[in-house]
Design brief:
By secondary structure, this protein is of the alpha+beta class. It has three domains: 266 residues, Roll (Pnp Oxidase, Chain A); 103 residues, UbiD C-terminal domain-like (3-Layer(aba) Sandwich), CATH 3.40.1670; 115 residues, UbiD C-terminal domain-like (3-Layer(aba) Sandwich). The protein has 19 helices and 30 strands. The radius of gyration is 26 Å and the shape is globular.
């Protein structure tokens, strides 16, 4: 299904009961974020803020549920898109045994041609109003979190083209507003636009850039999609909406954009200009990404359609709206990955606690020894899967959408000494735990049933851990909590929280505990900081996967005969220079400030948004340390 405009999509959300309108003035400075975060965390509606203090309403949480994501892409199930891709690939690439079989390709080729973007020779609806003297302050740009470096455009589709080939690229990179006609351009080291930027720099040429906001929601989605290099994102948009994208030329540069978007922000980046300090920003990892230097985007013109709506999103502690953008990618790209990289792959789950790149759960049809290890290496070499940090492989009969089923498979089928693989490689630049920027390590867990030639894991059954728990808490007062609930369900994982206050403290406690016999027979032991609620498995998974560099923080210990215990210890605590020799800055967890929370509580009834929802930030306050975006390592917890 194609949408004529963002307003068209909003009307559908409204008629489906998926939209809440707020007519009271709500400030884009922190307050919209606080209201939206309450709705998002409680699985609430999309929100249309009709009074933003500007001429434009603001839409947020438009993709924040499976139903709304399906509405955005015009399907009943996200898997329907993968099924359509599978059928198309079969028609195009399947064996052709007869002349008639070859003729059957023609409709598929014709269908593909109908999805190709097309340039039209008139002005678009997006150019109905021209702001010749551009002023980004006239848009309701959000300042999302208290320690953010300023207001950020959070849902932009950034258009660039290769300086030599002219091939278009559309990506989504946050844009900090620095002035009325300048922003930062936070394209990551590994992204397509950053590669194009380097070419313009070599040629000594200014790089044209145009940013669109709104329009058909498919445009927003494809800007986030991990497409192969040099594949046109608007071909995928045409496939999703079953209608080609019509493009118009921008007014002040030589780029083309969809004619039906809501806003177009035209301009350029000058590679010869000094980089500008951008950030901090409360990011999708749930931690602040810290200030760094990025190109400066100069705005030359802003155009917009009549009755334009400004789209935005917020990111932060999961779950957030971007969960469903990520889930759409998981379901859409499962088929191409299976067809081109890992044919034995049967399903995949990137749980929201893993913030897309930290955790991936995969199921395969296993037919030979070592196949789980083969799958790990194949996936780590496939496009943006190179950023994955923790990858588990299970058999096809395990439902990877059921996290407890995966945990049971890992517990039953894994020998920690034989079935865990560690490698070094690239990591997402937002990974704060790696010793080096954008370079860290990965852990693969082969939790498939073992075939002849593979090591068979020993069975470990702990029927009663109560005596050991009592002894641990008595012997080690720095241990705050011990969660043995998974053990009682047949899952060999123990979670401990402790107050770490000296160098080597985590390993010291782990070594003493296992030597005294308290932890024997348990395969995986996770250690968290004292302020983490170890009885909240989602919280543990989110913080731990963010806080570990696997080759540094996942370790084995030796017994008195220098043989390793078959136990993997995972140090999920925060890392500091004094206690861990960690020399990079450690970011703070994101939470709203008390004044904004109190303001929204006081004014909630004015919003007519239903019963008051408590602030999600309240449950994370104990995790936030002094120092703003950067944790002050010399201060006590607030």
């Amino acid at each position: 299904m194609s949408y004529k405009s963002l307003s068209h999509f909003i009307s559908l959300l409204d008629s489906a009961g998926e939209l809440t309108r707020i007519s009271e003035f709500v400030s884009p400075h922190l307050v919209i974020t606080e209201v939206a975060d309450r709705f998002i965390k409680h699985k609430g509606n999309a929100l249309l803020f009709e009074n933003t203090g500007t001429a434009f309403p603001l839409l947020i949480n438009a993709f924040g549920s499976e139903k709304r994501m399906c509405l955005a892409l015009g399907v009943d199930r996200l898997d329907d898109i993968g099924d359509n891709i599978s059928q198309l690939l079969q028609n195009l690439l399947g064996p052709k045994e007869s002349f008639l079989d070859k003729l059957r390709i023609l409709p598929a080729l014709n269908e593909m041609a109908s999805f190709m973007p097309k340039k039209i020779g008139r002005k678009g609806d997006c150019q109905a109003v021209i702001m010749h003297k551009p002023d980004l302050r006239k848009l309701p740009v959000l300042t999302c979190w208290p320690a953010d470096g300023g207001p950020f455009i959070t849902l932009p589709a950034v258009h660039t083209k290769d300086a030599l080939t002219g091939i278009r690229n559309i990506g989504m990179y946050r844009m900090q507003v620095l002035g009325p006609d300048t922003t930062g351009m936070h394209w990551h080291l590994h992204k397509g636009a950053a590669q194009q930027f380097r070419k313009y720099k070599e040629l000594g040429q200014k790089m044209p850039v145009s940013v669109t906001l709104g329009g058909d929601p498919a445009y927003t989605y494809v800007a986030t999609a991990p497409l192969p290099e040099n594949m046109d994102e608007y071909l995928l948009a045409g496939f999703l909406r079953k209608k080609k994208v019509e493009l118009v030329k921008c007014l002040t540069n030589d780029l083309e954009v969809p004619e039906d978007v809501d806003f177009v922000i035209e301009g350029y980046v000058d590679p010869n200009e000094d980089l500008v300090l951008e950030g901090p920003f409360g990011d999708h990892t749930g931690f602040y990404s810290l200030a760094d230097y990025y190109p400066r985007f100069h705005v030359t013109c802003i155009t917009y359609r009549k009755n334009a709506v400004y789209p935005a999103t917020i990111v932060g502690i999961p779950p957030m709206e971007d969960e469903w953008l990520g889930k759409a990618t998981e379901r859409i790209f499962l088929v191409p990955i299976k067809a081109t990289v890992v044919p034995e792959l049967t399903d995949m789950n990137m749980p929201v606690e893993g913030v897309f790149h930290n955790i991936a759960l995969t199921a395969i049809e296993k037919t030979f020894p070592g196949q789980g290890l083969k799958v790990m290496n194949s996936l780590w070499g496939a496009g943006q899967m190179m950023f994955n940090k923790i990858l588990a492989v299970v058999d096809k009969d395990v439902d990877v959408q059921d996290r407890e089923a995966v945990a049971k498979a890992i517990s039953a089928n894994t020998d920690p000494l034989q079935d865990i693989q560690f490698i070094r490689g690239p990591v997402d630049i937002l990974d704060h735990s790696s010793r080096n920027f954008a370079l860290g390590s990965k852990m693969g867990i082969d939790a498939t049933k073992k075939l002849p030639g593979e090591s068979v894991p020993a069975k470990t059954e702990i029927t009663d851990f109560s005596a050991a728990k009592t002894a641990l808490l008595r012997e080690f007062p720095e241990i705050n909590s011990v969660n043995e609930q998974l053990l009682s369900r047949g899952i060999s994982i123990l979670i401990i929280s402790m107050h770490k206050f000296r160098k080597g403290h985590v390993r010291e406690i782990c070594r003493s505990s296992i030597q005294q016999g308290y932890l024997k027979g348990i395969k995986f032991i996770i250690v968290m900081d004292s302020e983490v609620n170890v009885f909240n498995p989602g919280l543990v998974a989110w913080i731990c996967s963010n806080n570990i560099d696997p080759m540094r923080d996942c370790f084995f210990l030796q017994d008195e005969h220098d043989f390793p215990y078959p136990v993997l210890f995972i140090d999920g605590t925060k890392k500091t220079e004094n206690q861990d020799g960690f020399h990079r800055e450690w970011p703070n967890i994101i939470a709203m400030d008390d004044a904004t929370i109190s303001f929204v509580d006081k004014n909630w009834d004015k919003y007519h948004a239903g019963p008051r929802i408590p602030s999600p930030s309240l449950q994370y306050k104990s995790l936030v340390f002094q120092g703003g975006a950067v944790m002050d390592q010399h201060e006590e917890q607030k």
